[in-house]
Amino acid sequence: MAQPVPERPVPAQPWGRIVLVVAVLVTAATATWEWQMRALQLLPGDLQDNSSLWADQRRRIDTEDVQVAIVGDSRILFDTDLDRFEALTGVRPVQLALAGTNARPFLEDLAADPHFRGLALVGISEWSYFRTASGLHADALARYHFESPAQRASFLIYRRLSDVFGFLDAEYRLSRLVLRLDPGLRPGTRGPYQEPWKLMITAADRQSALWPRIETDVYLNRHARSVWARTYSAPPVSAEVIAMTQTVTRDAVGAIRAHGGDVIFIRPPSRGPFRENENRIVPREQVWDALLTAAHVQGLHADDDPVASHLFLPELSHVSRACASVYTDSFVRRLALLTPQLKLRADAPAPLAATDCPPSAEALALQNIVEGTPSAGARAMPVEH
Amino acid sequence: MVFNSLTFVIFFAIVLGLFWMPFAWTTRKIILLVASYLFYAAWNPPFIVLLWISTVVDWWAANRIARSSNIFRRRTWMLVSVSANLGMLGWFKYGEFLLRNFQSLAAVAGVHYQPPHFDIVLPVGISFYTFATMSYTLDVYLRRAQPTTSMLDFMLFVTFFPHLVAGPIMRPSELVPQFQKVVRPNLGQLRFGLALMTLGLFQKVVLADGFLAGPSEQLFDGTKIPGALDAWMGTLAFSGQIFCDFAGYSTTAIGAALCLGFKMPDNFRFPYAAVGFSDFWRRWHITLSAWLRDYLYIPLGGNRHGERRAYFALMMTMLLGGLWHGASWTFVVWGALHGAYLASERWLRQHFAGYTPGPVVCVLLGLLTYALVNVTWVFFRAKTFEKAWLVLKGMAGANSASEPILAAAHLIAIAVIVGGLVLAHWQMRTRTLESLVAMSPAPVIAAAWSLMLFAVIVEQGTGNAFIYFQF
After folding, report:
1. Would B4 be classed as within a structural domain?
2. What does the pLDDT look like over A264-273, one tens digit per residue?
3. Cβ separation of B42 and A2 shorter than 8 Å?
4. B257 to chain A: nearest residue by CA?
5. Residues of chain B with pLDDT > 70: what percent?
6. A348-376: pLDDT as tens digits
7. DSSP label at A289?
8. Is residue B5 one of the residues assigned to a domain?
9. In the predicted model, what is the mean pLDDT of residues A274-302?
10. Interface list for B 166-185 with A (CB within 8 A)
11. Which of B139, B454, B462 to mutate to test the interface with A (most CBs of A within 10 A)?
């Protein structure tokens, strides 16, 4: 039977006054929330890395003559200062590294793109690169290949809002904050508390850095270390995965060179028990050295860089925001010696040293607490070893 | 675009502003039409062509049917309409599914057949708008309605953005008359409409995406073997997620339409308080149930041709209803289970016709209904039968090597949200949202509205598509 026009009565209420009260309450609550989030160092201008932001940068290769593109994981993403890179070489790289994500599919993507004829810098942590999984942001490639007009528009609006509101941070959304209250009450499970929390800040062209609060907040610093410590029980990477990775890398490097480009691998620094564990699961000679040989590619390892070995890594895996400039200065100078595709400017600034990015007194105090005896004021945080 | 996106906020503000301007009625309808096309094109502009094909074919076919008294011609034009709509649906939604099944059948017969890889992209909402447009032609063919004389009204009926991609599936008789006379929305409709939109977005952004999607994914997309606690809680999480997601969409859609002065029907009526499965389907996705009843169950014979035919019609309707939800045999099993539940209930009602349950038994039967609905959700959510069996075995406590999956925080969130949801459904079982709002003190409404809106703002949302968009 034909359906009649539906009835949709409006309940009798003083809607005008209700709307007014809602507007006042929500505005006040949101302003208070924003104030509270800013007190936690969530600041306007931090764009939140996401697939759309990545795709926005990736498209530059389609339209510009990109001389340097960086793919990789969080280490090369946080540890590279694009301003310093540009000051030294006159070239501002396209930053395509993604936190928690395997660089390999992204290197393959560059290799499959004939538009790219520049230098690809592949910044890796071996345990991220030598695995079968794609990692956290594998969907970024799909977003690059197809981004709907609605997604694009939402991204552009979000960028504008991020310049105004600090609370717009996925890591500090309501559900995350609530679910993180459980520090692991049920043995054997892995909840939001055990996932990595906010570690980075991101600017417009994906210039990213370690969130400065990680340097000074004992609780957050310990949490980050406890997350890395989860890898301490991981088995060594298998021979099959090493062989597969070498093959894929060799093919990708060959394809990029066939287009007129080149590839150089970079291994940023890590420290302490985290580094010791990496030596166990991804030993340098079996993984890094063998990769360079098998793929016929050059590489810069932090162990061979005297500057890198003295930098400040607040949570053992990434250099501090200030030290990103120093590390970039160091590896770019070494890069210029390796490849003719990158030259230092005649008016390049003077070299930096680890002493140019000393940790603050607050950060040093934190290191003493975290690596030494916890003070009474530090909140408890289980660290897995 | 999705309702839970910043783009929609801007889009809706502009549409609302323009529609409330004192333009001529035709101009305002054109504004709505253009806005609706923009709303759809924001996903993938080329797919607008499909929308046009569906619109033009049904407009043309319905007019031809109305003009002719020749039964053969009428039937031919009806079949043109049905073929065009189901053809599009078949190609885009079921093309790969059919090929995969053909490949499997060929393999059973010893023939190795490698189908070409088409990589077909499913146009969002195609299942909804093809059903809506088909109902227009079918109503004219069945002489339930006259074709509209205004192409603009018909185009607007098909594309009206609040219901375009995920329903409620509206009939021409519900919406076209609203376009035929000048609509002047009032401030009461605008304010209540905004309140409904807030409620819908709260359900989607905060409850479904924020708290329930994660544990559901951990159970159904993870590799761990679930025990009874995880299997049940993960499935309950999905039952809450899919309700909050879909009912959230419908409520937002109804609210958006009301802000513009248009009335859309309820699509959900507190389904988790259903006692029995016929009651459930009168409360869950009501507009689809009614569509399937009118255009499938009754034409298949309904209950007017004997018991066997009625059972057959019931099972076929639910099997096809299951397949409508997705091109996978798991959806067919979901439909088959609901068909079997409905058939069993029908048999029980006939054999215990004089029995009237008391309040306690009624609640127990309601809980049994909810538990059995949860069993069906396993097939709805699991991507493979292997996964579905694993979860069902877990629910029965039969997985010997089970591991804990869901963190305590998730278990508590599921218990609070889904438990609260079921309780709320029982409280509201015989009432409507409007009646509750009418009898609530204004400060309570203001506080609840503020809390929900604030929660939506601080949850921020990920812009995740609604689950039913994929159908």
Report:
1. no
2. 999 999 998 9
3. no
4. A8
5. 97
6. 999 999 999 999 888 888 888 888 754 44
7. I
8. no
9. 93
10. 171, 173-175, 177-178
11. B454
CA contacts within 13 A on the Cβ side of A142: 5
Q: How far apart are CA B11 and CA B9, in angstroms?
A: 6
B321 CB-side CA count, 13 A: 27
Do B313 and B251 lie in one domain? The reply is yes
DSSP calls for B272-288: GG-SSHHHHHHHSSHHH
Q: Is residue B1 part of a domain?
A: no
Domain span holding position B93: 21-184
Which position has the higher pLDDT, B444 or B306?
B444
Cα–Cα–Cα angle for A330, A331, A333, nearest 5°?
Answer: 70
In the block, residue with structure tokens 């564990």: A277
Angle between helices A149-162 and A51-58 (to 10 degrees): 100
Same domain, B193 and B159: no
- Out of A13, A150, A174, closest to residue B459 by CB: A174
d(CA B181, CA B25): 8
SS3 B405: coil
Instruction: With respect to residue B164, please indicate whether it lies within any of the assigned structural domains.
Output: yes
B95 touches chain A (CB under 8 A): no
pLDDT above 50: residue B211: yes
Do B69 and B121 fall into the same domain? yes
Are B332 and B372 in a shared domain?
Answer: yes
Do residues B288 and B162 both lie within one domain? no
The predicted-structure confidence for B7-20, as pLDDT tens digits, reads as follows 999 999 999 999 99
Per-residue model confidence (pLDDT) at position A319: 96
Residue that terminates a domain, selected from B136, B155, B184: B184
Domain check: are B165 and B297 in the same one? no
pLDDT tens, residue by residue, B79-102: 999 999 999 988 888 888 888 888
- Predicted pLDDT at A1: 57
- Examine the domain organization and report whether B255 and B330 are in the same domain: yes
pLDDT at A2: 67
Structure tokens at A366: 């934190």
Domain count, chain B: 2
For residue A301, give the H/E element and its range: strand A298-301
CA pair distance B157, B34, nearest whole angstrom: 13
Helix (H), strand (E) at residue B310: helix B307-325
Q: Which amino acid is at B345?
A: E
Among residues B167, B184, B201, which one ends one of the domains? B184
A30–B454 C-beta distance less than 8 A: yes
Query: In this structure, are B216 and B114 located in the same domain?
Result: no
The residue among B101 and B394 whose pLDDT is bigger is B394
> pLDDT grade, residue B140 (50/70/90)?
very high
Q: Judge: B409–A154 Cβ closer than 8 Å, yes or no.
A: no
Q: Which of B163, B285, B325, B425 is catalytic?
A: B325
Q: Which of A10, A13, A167 sits opposite B189 (nearest CB)?
A: A10
* CA A177/CA A193 separation, integer angstroms: 9
Which among B8, B437, B458 is the nearest to A173, CB-wise? B458
Q: Is B351 a catalytic residue?
A: no
Q: Which residues of B touch A178 (CB under 8 A)?
A: 211, 409, 413
Mutation site for B-interface testing, chosen from A24, A172, A186, A194 by largest number of B Cβ within 10 Å: A186
CA dihedral A80, A85, A86, A91 (to 10 degrees): -100
Q: How confident is the model at residue B463, as a pLDDT?
A: 58
In DSSP terms, which residues pair with A267 in a beta bridge? A301
Report ipTM (2 d.p.).
0.89
pLDDT tens by residue, A187-216: 999 889 988 999 999 998 999 999 999 999
